[in-house]
Write a structure and sequence with these properties.
- It contains eleven helices and nine strands.
- The protein is globular, with a radius of gyration of 18 Å.
- The protein is α/β, with parallel strands linked by helices.
- Strand 2 and strand 3 form a beta hairpin.
- The longest helix has 19 residues.
- A nine-stranded mixed β-sheet has the order 1-2-3-5-4-6-7-8-9, with helices on both faces.
Length: 286
């Protein structure tokens, strides 16, 4: 596997550096771009730091989170490296990939597609949980076994399934306004039907609510954050995951309903510090 990465840009930020890299992804068979924030601890003291992965939502690239969330000041203070990939393969030629905002480009849904013509490139799940982890480990000084994941909306769904399908891979998990039961919402039905096929049993393997109900491994805590004024609640269905978790002793949930907040980065930026602190507490514990 090729671990070579190319620096696209770097900006000093909160005494650290916000960098953007590109690399040739073997998993996705295309060139991909991702963000990496290096805190002062990683730059000045050159000491290994925990790493936190952030997965973005529909229509986003790597840029939205870097520019809008304000996470850098918190990651700098807590000494976390933060990595955020793009939301789908890019630069591939697939008919129809740019036809709608909620399928194809910018909408990889963090699954491994089985249906043609998507199966060759659309393997965001394997990219996030395997290749990107390896690339980060090979190029940055990260603490072994100190890895967290979080995300927003489609990316919140991604963070939850990546953790639930790989017990022990991540030591901390949180999500802003995640699509927790995609099998029951219009976004999820469209994505799963197109990428995975028509069998609901196959969908269940990529659905956080289904995975929570069946989870029997290492006890896992899930921090779920949700704005009460989110206009996409019928797509997100947080109550379904909470109900599934309440019946499973292996899953603990922290659920914070934020009064009056919507689905936007105004909401995320308000509570991002709380999430970074949550991950830092779990990732810096000895």
């Amino acid at each position: 596997q090729n671990m070579t990465i190319e620096l696209v840009s770097t900006n000093k930020c909160c005494e650290g550096e916000q960098r953007v890299y590109r690399h040739k992804s073997a998993t996705l068979d295309c060139e991909m771009t991702f963000g990496v924030f290096l805190p002062p601890a990683a730059l000045e003291e050159d000491r290994p730091c925990p790493v936190l992965f952030y997965l973005s939502g529909l229509t986003c690239t790597h840029e939205n989170f870097i520019q809008k969330s304000g996470f850098q000041q918190h990651a700098a203070r807590h000494g976390l490296i933060v990595v955020n990939p793009d939301t789908s393969p890019r630069g591939v030629q697939i008919a129809g990939q740019d036809d709608s905002y909620d399928f194809g480009s910018g909408a990889g849904f963090y699954v491994d597609a089985k249906q043609e013509p998507w199966a060759k490139h659309y393997k965001m799940y394997s990219y996030v949980t395997e290749e990107l982890v390896d690339v980060v480990n090979a190029n940055f000084s990260v603490k072994p076994g100190k890895r967290g994941i979080f995300g927003h909306s489609m990316g919140g769904h991604g963070a939850l399934i990546c953790a639930l399908k790989n017990p022990g891979l991540y030591q901390s998990v949180s999500a802003f306004a995640p699509i927790v039961n995609p099998s029951e919402g219009a976004w999820g039905k469209k994505a799963f039907g197109g990428y995975i096929g028509s069998d609901p049993a196959e969908w269940a393997q990529w659905d956080a609510t289904s995975l929570v109900s069946q989870y029997e491994s290492t006890p896992q805590e899930l921090f779920i954050d949700q704005g009460s004024a989110d206009n996409f609640l019928k797509e997100l269905l947080p109550e379904n995951l909470l109900a599934a978790a309440s019946g499973n002793d292996h899953i603990q949930t922290i659920y914070k309903l934020r009064e009056g907040y919507d689905h936007s980065y105004f909401y995320i930026s308000t509570f991002i510090g709380e999430h970074i602190a949550y991950h830092a507490a779990l990732l810096t514990a000895t």
